[in-house]
Amino acid sequence: MGVMTETYSPAQTVEMSGFSLDTLRYYERIGLIEPVRRAAGGHRRYSDDDLGWLDMLRCLRGTGMPIAQMHTFAELVRDGDDTIADRLALLEEHDANVEAEMTRLIELQRKVRDKIAYYRGALAELPVECVRD
Amino acid sequence: MGVMTETYSPAQTVEMSGFSLDTLRYYERIGLIEPVRRAAGGHRRYSDDDLGWLDMLRCLRGTGMPIAQMHTFAELVRDGDDTIADRLALLEEHDANVEAEMTRLIELQRKVRDKIAYYRGALAELPVECVRD
DNA sequence: GTGGGATCTGGAGCGCGCTCCAGGTCAAGC
DNA sequence: GCTTGACCTGGAGCGCGCTCCAGATCCCAC
Question: CATH number of the domain that B121 lies in?
């Protein structure tokens, strides 16, 4: 009795991965995902491995990695274990980019909040003529 | 002797605002910036006020506000002082969005770093066969 | 007054990342 | 068997935010 590997329909995969059906097919088309196993009739059956990889893509995409770079990463994964150092380097660089982006965001958010504070002040100062009754 | 208000050429404004020349003109075209004062020959002369507004746009745009919403904000500004509460509300909502975005980023960055840690481990475990000399 | 760089205008084009569509096939319930 | 809905493929379309281009004008230095 071999271990039965779970498989998932496209609809289930949409549900579980958070990607749209079109995006799943798109990613497969452009080679971000290896060709997905098919059931007899040609319908896709995603594996747990596929789901894991999709989760990886979600992390990378969700942190702003461009598709071209995800593609590079996918190729490294495909090329086997002796690309691990390269993958690590790529992820570390990405992590640095994310960090920089967050720093930038924090900086600008601070300025937005200054503006908010300014408007709060302005609002407190001039309601003299606003309420009439 | 009236106070001479400074004005800036397009090139200077590019330099100071961080927006490209094309973007400056684009923003003006779509109404994100009020029509900029012109010198005799038709060349733009940006004012300190313009610069201030551009800085505002840079904050909003840089924190991911869509142009449509910046447009809404610009209209509120144009409509005068009794829109201050609305502007405040808009900025506060935006601030909340930025906050949510940062939370999302932090969460995903954590996962990316987990992957990095995983690869570091993998790298430490299998270099047995890698170095041969 | 002439050359060369900055600027002007209106409009077309582009890069990214999907998203949608048409026209057909597959699969499960009645 | 038939219906209905999920799924298939290849390719076109789109929304956003710029970016580029052509052809003309302006302005400053020499």
Answer: 1.10.1660.10
Q: Which nucleotide minimizes the distance between its C1' and the CA of A42?
A: D8
Tell me the residue range of the domain where A61 lies. 7-129
Q: What is the pLDDT of residues A72-106, one digit of tens each?
A: 999 999 999 999 999 999 999 999 999 999 999 99
Number of structural domains chain A divides into: 1
Give the 3-state secondary structure of residue B44. strand
pLDDT of B66: 98
pLDDT of B63-97, one tens digit each? 999 999 999 999 999 999 999 999 999 999 999 99
Strand ranges for chain A from DSSP E = 7-8, 46-47
Q: Which of A113, B98, B8 is CA-nearest to residue B19?
A: B8
- Which chain A residues are closer than 8 Å to B85 by Cβ? 123
The span from the CA of B82 to the CA of A73, in Å, is: 53
**Which residues lie across from A38 on neighbouring strands?**
A44
Could you say which residues from 85 to 104 on chain A have a Cβ atom under 8 Å away from some Cβ of chain B? 85, 87-88, 91-92, 94-95, 98-99, 101-102, 104
